[in-house]
C-alpha cells in the first residue's frame, strides 16, 4: 500500500529538517573539524533551497531535490568510511536521513505524476 501524498510530504519535510539540524549541530557542537566550529557548517545552507517547495508539496522541487540530496548521501558515505567517532556515527545518521528523504521524494513525485492515459 502506497502512503498518501500528505504522508510523503510529512516524511520528506521531517527528514530534510532533521538533516539541516544535523548538519548544524555536527559542525558547530557535536564533532566539528576544528574546536569551536568550522566553516563546514555552511553545508547546511544549500538544504534550505528546496525547503519551502518541499513543505508546500511542489512536485518539481521533489524531482530536483531527489537528485540534489545524493550529494549529502555521498558525503555521509565518505565520512562514515574515513572519519573517527563521533563523526562517523553522525555520518551514518546523515546517510539514513538522506535515503529517507530520497525515497519519500521519489514516491511523492511518482504519486503526483500527471495521468499518462490518453497521451500520444
Mean pLDDT: 93
Principal-axis shape equals elongated
**Biggest beta-sheet profile:** none
- pLDDT below 50 for ≥5 consecutive residues: which ranges? none
Query: What is the radius of gyration computed over CA atoms, rounded to a whole number of angstroms?
Result: 16 Å
Q: What is the CA-CA span between the terminal residues?
A: 29 Å
Number of helices: 5
Number of domains: 1
Q: Which structural category fits the helices and strands? A: mainly alpha
Describe the structure.
The chain is mostly helical. The protein has one domain (5-111). It is built from 5 helices and no strands. The model has no long low-confidence stretch (mean pLDDT 93).
Provide a quick synopsis of the model.
The chain is an all-alpha fold. The protein has helices at 5-30, 51-56, 59-68, 70-82, 87-111.
Amino acid at each position: 500500500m502506497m502512503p498518501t501524498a500528505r504522508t510523503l510530504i510529512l516524511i520528506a519535510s521531517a527528514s530534510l529538517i532533521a538533516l539541516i539540524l544535523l548538519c548544524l549541530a555536527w559542525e558547530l557542537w557535536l564533532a566539528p573539524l576544528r574546536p569551536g566550529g568550522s566553516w563546514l557548517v555552511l553545508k547546511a545552507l544549500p538544504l534550505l533551497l528546496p525547503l519551502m517547495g518541499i513543505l508546500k508539496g511542489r512536485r518539481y522541487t521533489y524531482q530536483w531535490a531527489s537528485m540534489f540530496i545524493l550529494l549529502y548521501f555521498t558525503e555521509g558515505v565518505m565520512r562514515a568510511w574515513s572519519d573517527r567517532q563521533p563523526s562517523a556515527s553522525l555520518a551514518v545518521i546523515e546517510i539514513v536521513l538522506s535515503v529517507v528523504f530520497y525515497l519519500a521524494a521519489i514516491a511523492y513525485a511518482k504519486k503526483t505524476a500527471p495521468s499518462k492515459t490518453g497521451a500520444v
